[in-house]
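User:
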Amino acid sequence: MVEQLTQEARAAALGTLKGWTYGDKEKAISQTFAFKDFSEAFGFMARVALAAEKAGHHPDWSNSYNKVTIALSTHDAGGLSDKDIALAKAIDAVVG
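Assistant: Predicted structure:
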């Protein structure tokens, strides 16, 4: 079973990410990405979907025209885990 990150580990991991914020209530990190148009946002979602499938870890997300909001939390761990940090880093790499 995947372990939830400690508060100290979570703070250290957040320092390595670009623009992700932690929500205590949700026990998740999230970020909203804005793109030029729907097509660009959808292309981003397709690339993230491939990375998520490869990792075997899938985001909670929504899309509205040119914006994609992603939340990452490991449900089996009851909160944020290393799997979420790794996927956030992969998403950051997709963004560039």
